Amino acid sequence: MDGLSRLNTDRLRYLREQRGWSQRELARLCGFGETQIRRYEAGIVDPSATNLGLIADVLETSADYLLDRTDASEVRISETALSKDETDLMIQFRSEGWSGVTRLGVERTQAEVEAEREVFRTIANSLIEQAELLNHQRDTLVDQIGLVTGQLTRLSNSMLILKGIQTRLNILFPDEVFTFESIQAVAEHPIAQLLMSILQPNTKLPRGIRQLYMLLFFDEDRQLSSERAELLRQTWHLISYSVKNQ
Asked: How far, rounded to the nearest angstrom, does the alpha carbon of residue 158 sit from its chain's CA centroid?
């Protein structure tokens, strides 16, 4: 201190006790050592200008009040230091009193609520759009799963048919080796498909085609004769050769 103005220790103690703070608590709030406020209040030492300003800020007073230069303990707030909302409240209070302050508060609250509602509406609309998109994606996925399932079913049925034909050929021609792969390789050939229709039991064929098959490959007892079986075997090998050399 400059020696002309001494700290009024009574005022410092009064403001501290008015807030219910101990000397240590005030020292901690000011960022001082634990015993610093006790030394100031005991008059052992005067605070520096910087420390005095810190104490005044924490106690919400002025350095002049602590130095006995004024009797006004509260700091007067300049209107320029107020926020816009605080300034609006002050203007409203001066013009209409507490009723004006209440009305302004209601208007501001309603505006804030409406702004929050708009945010919620935006979020809700976004969630609805996302849900619709997910539903569309789900429906598309279900359709794709159905398509794949149908394809797998058809493939499975085709493989079972080819396996059955392989078994029948190996029974009819034990000296030949009809692999599943060789049968699968010629399965798309139209004549091979006709021959496979003959080899499949309970095949539903048009009457004229069935009669033609019967004449070509079966005898009067509807048995596959050796000569006609040989014709069937040669026809099958001819198809296999044709497919391999396409």
From this structure: 43
Positive or negative: CA dihedral 38, 44, 50, 53: positive
The amino acid at 208: G
What six digits make up the tokens of 8? 């009024």
CA distance 197 to 165: 9
Let me know: does 5 contact 69? Beta carbons within 8 Å.
Answer: yes
**What does the H/E/C string look like for the chain?**
CCCCCCCCHHHHHHHHHHCCCCHHHHHHHHCCCCCHHHHHHCCCCCCCHHHHHHHHHHCCCCHHHHCCCCCCCCCCCCHHHCCHHHHHHHHHHHHHHHHHHHHHHHHHHHHHHHHHHHHHHHHHHHHHHHHHHHHHHHHHHHHHHHHHHHHHHHHHHHHHHHHHHHHHHHHHCCCCCCCHHHHHHHCCCHHHHHHHHHHCCCCCCCHHHHHHHHHHHECCCCCECHHHHHHHHHHHHHHHHHHHCC
The residue to which tokens 């209440």 are assigned: 102
Instruction: Note the pLDDT tens digit of each residue in 195-234.
Output: 666 555 555 555 555 555 555 555 555 555 565 566 666 6
Tell me which residue of 179, 181, 215 sits closest to 198, measured CA to CA. Answer: 215
pLDDT digits (tens, 9 = 90+) for 4-57: 468 899 999 999 998 889 999 999 999 999 899 999 999 899 999 899 989 998
